[in-house]
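Checked the freezer inventory, then went back to the computational side. Two predictions to log before the end of the day. The first one is the construct we discussed on Monday; recording sequence and tokens without edits.
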Amino acid sequence: MGEEGTEGTVHLLCLATSSGVPLFCRSSRGGAPARQQLPFPVIGSLNGVHMFGQNLEVQLSSARTEDTTVVWKSFHDSITLIVLSSEEGTSELRLERLLQMVFGAMVLLVGLEELTNISNIERLKKDLRATYHLIDSFLGDSELIGDLTQCVDCVVPPEGSLLQEALSGFAEAVGTAYVSLVVSGRVVAATESWWHLRTPEAVLLPWLVGSLPPQAARDYPVYLPHGSPTVPHRLLTLTLLPDLELCLLCGPCPPLSQLDPQLLERWWQPMLDPLRACLPQGPRALPAGFPLHTDILGLLLLHLELKRCLFTVEPSGDKDPSPEQRRYLLRSFYTLVTAVHFPPEPGQQEEKVEDTAHQTQVPRACYLVSGTEEPGTGWRLVALQLGPRRLLLLLSAQSPSHGLRSLAMHTLHALTPLL
């Protein structure tokens, strides 16, 4: 386990809780899928120590070795998930949320009934293969961050009001209230009912669409882990432009054949230019030309009540560090400020703050400087919370530490109308 950890490996194990039979094992190394599997004795030991604790009425949730972090989590006394990570700086918060997303993905594509009433292990193993691609995308180096923040990754389109109007009219024409536009796994616009979807399906549905191979149209059965975990719905997707898909969540009607080209042409042909303008918005998230300070290398803006976020590492793309490093730095900083500094987020039942007075004592801003305090060395990270919004910025080494708070405050005020 320790030797593998030097490579920055993540192993995800899924077992039947009652029998301890492994259902699947997925691995990644350096953010890419890995073929290597954990030896069966290691799997048995990891599950055995967890079961031993349960028999003594002790809940084992996490453990650390010199180079590996392990987190266990059981769901409905039926499925046990175990994750081992030797990635540098991995936090327990990150791994706990990963396991929640993985189980949500299993319910989304298989249904809760299959997972809680296991009558045929081999059939369940076969059914769970449908989840591998989505689960592997959580283990990889994704450009999205909703798996960690549990907020929906969004973009701000240049002509959002026009797209919203077309979306509402189209939804009424086809007879479903749940419609959204998704570009590269991020929501561009959605109907009011779609925005009312709860976690985890609100995050999982666009992530699923973004992870699937390109296809002109799909009729995909899905369960809603929160809203309808045992009765499937239909997720219809229609590709309007490459990487830009129209998504409908519905029941038996309408059939996919009813969404004929004439209907699509009526609503979306006049929107062709606004739709094209959305395509580069995927990784950028913000409208082209949006004024940002030149020191900003990446940002994460969260609206904790709406459960939406804007995440980009596109600003000043020609500077170091690389986009992959920027995402890593912001994700690591998010876990730090969320686990240590800032108040619990709405909806996190395991992290409720009972004393309202205590909330006035928590920090509203914090910063981190890697390297020395001198300008020109290391990176600067600053986080600011104001009302329901939380902003995290990654700044260049040239940015002076004494100006971080004012820069963050100015940026937050500029971004507030967008989210």
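The second is the one RB wanted added to the comparison set:
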Amino acid sequence: MLTIKRVPTVLSNYQDDSSEPRGCGRNCLGECCLPVSKLPLYAFKNDASPDVSSGVAELPSDFFLNTLLLGQWEDRMSRGLFRYDVTACETKVIPGKYGFVAQLNEGRHLKKRPTEFRVDRVLQPFDPAKFNFTKVGQEEVLFRFEAGEDHKSLFLEHAVADETKSPSVVAINVSPIEYGHVLLIPRVLDCLPQRIDPDNLLLALHMAAEAGSAYFRLGYNSLGAFATINHLHFQAYVLSTPFPVEKAPTQKIPIENGLSQCRVKFSKLLDYPVRGLVYEGGSTLKELSDIVARSCIWLQENNIPFNVLISDSGRRIFLFPQCYAEKQALGEVSQELLDTQVNPAVWEISGHMVLKRKKDYEDASEDYAWRLLSEVSLSEARFEEVKAYIFEAIGLVESKETAAVEKNEGTPYQSSTTVSAAPHFTEGCLVLH
């Protein structure tokens, strides 16, 4: 069994009290409290429903992100529920080709306890004895996020939970990386392990689509790829600048046959330190979700750790198979990189480097980011092998012809939603010349 000494990120104020049994009666997310609660409910629109008038007023285009999510997040900040003030953290764009973003977040050092973390099993059974999100207090929950029955989104400030099904909730991360950092926890009472399937990935895509902003991304880390809790969850936050990976050139992967009606475009990253696949488009969110989920399922079942970035309001997804934790456990990562205590999960891989020591922040360079992330990536030969297996699993045959390289300027930031910039970003403060 491969293990590494890890210091877990604290996601909830109740995490340190992981020995407390379920049924605590303290207004938690467990079966004792949640089914009779009246949390706010955001019911997202059902794209499959007919476009007929229901008499329900349309919500403003910026309601979900600006009014609800960020408004509730700032409310929790004013109530002192976070372990530190992330809006006070220094942030800069590192000079260089891609503009990696560096943040000094010394608060993520605080109040942590060492643990043994198994890194050689992507799929592990849910363990109710360990911390999980049913032990989170309801004051950390912003709202329930569930599918509606109408073609319009609906918000109910007080909605009694349906006792016949497990609700999905959006909660704060009390150790935030960025402004608006939240957790999407699908079907929280079902106690699902950290494992992607088409339904929970589709839920995450709907959240990105409802936000309607290129500044708002969701991320997923598998076990073995720096997920810290084995209870199904996605992370999301607002960063008002393109991620470096969004600007990386890509090469379309021509498909010879298979899935003849599929409208999803497949590409691979080029000239980026972590090799990855890019999925775009599709006739519906469900089509895109199904294809990406089947790719993730193959990785899970074949024990290959991976990270997922959901970008461009759910229309563009990056998939990164990775091997950093395995290299770390085998002693194959340099001490210089280990000393930074940076665990390259989805945000770091995408180009947002969260640094815990002031020296590392002051010395941050594109060369450092490139060296760290290069250790994450599969070798070219192994990546091509994994890609071929993924395509076989989803029923595609790659063509032998070579496609042209596509240059990307980052996600287009002219969305219909007006996004409030994080309060700690004054105009121009991100760019260093």
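For RB: The longest strand covers residues 141-147. The radius of gyration is 21 Å. Let me know if you want it refolded.
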